[in-house]
Amino acid sequence: MLTLEEARRRLxxxxxxTGEEEVSLSSASGRVLADPRIVASLxxxxxxxxxxxxxxxxxxxxxxxxxxxxxxAAGSASLPEVSGxxxxxxxxxxxLPPGADTVVPLEQAGESDGAVTVPLTAPxxxxxxxxxxTPAGTEVCLPRVLGPPAIAVLASLGxxxxxxRSRPRIAIVSTGDELMDPxxxxxxxxxxxSNAVALAAATSEAGGEPQSLGRVPDTREAVEEALRAGAGxxxxxxxxxxxxGQHDYxxxxxxxxxxxxxxxxxxxxxxxxxxxxxxxxxxIGLPGNPVSALVTFExxxxxxxxxMLGLAGDGRLRVQARPQEPIGKDPQRxxxxxxxVWHEAGETLARSSGGQGSAQLRPLAEANALLVVxxxxxxxxxxxxxxxxxxxxxx
Amino acid sequence: MLTLEEARRRLxxxxxxTGEEEVSLSSASGRVLADPRIVASLxxxxxxxxxxxxxxxxxxxxxxxxxxxxxxAAGSASLPEVSGxxxxxxxxxxxLPPGADTVVPLEQAGESDGAVTVPLTAPxxxxxxxxxxTPAGTEVCLPRVLGPPAIAVLASLGxxxxxxRSRPRIAIVSTGDELMDPxxxxxxxxxxxSNAVALAAATSEAGGEPQSLGRVPDTREAVEEALRAGAGxxxxxxxxxxxxGQHDYxxxxxxxxxxxxxxxxxxxxxxxxxxxxxxxxxxIGLPGNPVSALVTFExxxxxxxxxMLGLAGDGRLRVQARPQEPIGKDPQRxxxxxxxVWHEAGETLARSSGGQGSAQLRPLAEANALLVVxxxxxxxxxxxxxxxxxxxxxx
Lengths: 395, 395
Hints:
Two copies of one chain form a homodimer. By secondary structure, the first copy, chain A, is of the alpha/beta class. Chain A has seven helices and 28 strands.
């Protein structure tokens, strides 16, 4: 069996970065910049302006009482001149009028009878010079993932659109004769398909565009047809059909109609993961058990989608957490235990969020982190800390 | 000036939880459950089934060599009976056939000539009993914010739709004669409006539905008209117009046409925050400087939107981070410094991501956290740790 690291390395070597597209800033949140380096085509701020509400004056005239000869508001196009012994009322963001070289804030000035008394003030005080934030021609390096602050920077540079990576199209297939759509009635031997909708949600969360190919019965022909139908996508993700049973066809179809790169990894939950390709498109065959499917999605599909967007890693925060009590695991595999982590008295604690079986979904839903416990250990040990991959809010 | 805590307490006291609506599971990701308690209307799993690919047998017949009398696959409706001395091939998830009480995995069994040799096996081994995950009638308590695992739980319970809180409608108004839309040409004294698009993105990220009311010139009439136009929303968020200048009308309009609850807070950046209401709708007047606007959004509007969704806090992860070198601040205010935090050699370090001026957007875009430094301190002190509010990925 491959280790997680080796399996993931081999998977990520298959990632091809998606193409580029242009989106308006109003729909750019969460998208990934094609190139994080943006050359500023203008000075920011574009002109010298006041950082405060107050009076624009000449520093050489301070301290003193100066005659008020006008005012300038933010957005003013015509500016009164400040000559010797005069001052101009100014608001935050308004252009510094010609002749002035400093601003005295309202709170430091006293105005009466058309004149203002100001203290000694150094030149440049409360003045934002043109280009003092970003001079024209600067190569601005933004974070690749666009959040509100990066969107604000693009807008401040006058850009109304951003060039971003196209979302990778992820074809999602559930296999299994026993599966039924939620909302319909179960027949004998049937269970509800929870993987299709959960893997689609996880795909969107990771930055991909889910394309549901629906449920596929347990026949070799149906599985092959579904995988070939997914070949127009950037990646195919299946759940089920990758174990050792007679009705597990995903791996066999990859071997016969495409190629199988590897199968089985030393990870708990999720051992029977399969990776290969069909018609040039990478296929990740996730286990069918819902916990295994979502945990292996987190460990493999999420970093794969991010790699296709040009992003490294899984984008999750890690904390060092100490289990409150032992949590048993398979000593032959690296375990990703479903835990709740929280801060308490200066340390981060973890407790099992419930049963750790690979079909026990509720404890995964109640978890906010995966506790990473190495191969070789029989249980998470309360005497030490482990890395926890945080995916939910801390309570 | 109010402290952050007092100001936020007064703001959040105004929050009214939004109504409910039903959405399909495929569009439920990130939405907030109206009621996190869901009563299971069926057993999960709905029937006893095999946890492994292998053989269904009677424990009393083990160890021994048993005649194979049939097979049962996942989704099978008709089941062969397991009587004394017999076994049935079974796949993971397939219903346990009548008579059988245990499963021997393929790896532990040897099949030849229509018979299988199995080791001593206790009753119930590798059998998932009906309702063993969730018995019908159980009150399942899910996290309020729906992620992939909670969506999977809902699907496994047969639910195709979820009742969620309506997204609060947040009217967004930028004030200022100097503002111009990105993508157009700047006139004299103009700058690009970065707040409108950034506050809309931050609103979506927090779970609200942004409704842009556009830009408003600096006249009392225009500001009042815009605030009244926002009265059909659940909350009005303005930027600019809340300082002490002659052209700052938001606060005045609140005082005259509605009511002003408080103005000015002891927070850096963001002192001139105003909160009040007009026509029964709460108005949060954010400062116009883009860094102040986004930081006060984080501190006030984000928790307000979450409170309207029935969620506590800001949903951000906190870490304790130590600044690598002093970062200066205003000793009279609690500061939220823009920093990059990262893990190194067992501790979490922070460094200023650039200038800390309230108009310096780039350092905010390059930050992944706000370092919280108390009132009274003149700088963040490298000899101790501070709480950091993490809003971006750690590199």
